[in-house]
Specification:
By secondary structure, the chain is mainly α. About 60% of the residues lie in helices and about 10% in strands. The protein contains 6 helices and 3 strands, in the order αααααβββα. It has helices at about 1-15, 20-35, 45-55, 55-65, 70-85, 125-144, and strands at about 95-100, 110-115, 115-120.
Length: about 140
């Protein structure tokens, strides 16, 4: 399963004329659901626990960028896994995807786009780190 994830994401990242970042983000959210469910039913609790365990820097940076008491995993689940995947954001969205150079390598941060301040996640970093995790799991599955 993880090898297929890597191949699909890599194809989208290498797409021409440019990477398909929204599709990559949607697939990663779906793949996290699948990995977190571990053969069972997916859900918010399993998804956020998986994010906290495997993507702690993303969770920490996203929580910091948004402020408040909600965890970065909860914010990611609501706005990137739920709203983006199901609604492709909305016209009044407060969240966005950004390239690595736009956030200077940070996992999340504030961006101004068309005069609006948005909280963005670094989709290139998420892609790299998710693919590394999936490759590691694929190698482990081959050894079994």
């Amino acid at each position: 399963m993880c090898g297929t994830m890597v191949r699909a994401l890599t194809a989208l990242y290498r797409a021409r004329p440019s990477p398909e970042y929204v599709a990559i983000a949607c697939l990663i959210a779906c793949y996290i659901d699948a990995l977190a469910a571990n053969g069972g039913n997916a859900g918010r609790g399993k998804f956020t626990a998986f994010l906290k365990k495997h993507f702690k820097p993303l969770c920490d940076r996203l929580a910091s960028a948004v402020g408040g008491k909600r965890s970065g995993a909860e914010i990611f689940y609501e706005h990137f896994r739920d709203k983006m995947v199901h609604n492709y954001f909305t016209p009044n969205a407060k969240f966005a995807l950004a390239e690595d150079h736009e956030l200077h390598g940070q996992y999340a941060g504030e961006l101004e786009i068309d005069g609006r301040k948005l909280v963005a996640i670094n989709i290139e970093r998420l892609y790299r780190e998710f693919v590394a995790l999936a490759r590691k799991r694929a190698k482990r599955a081959k050894r079994k």
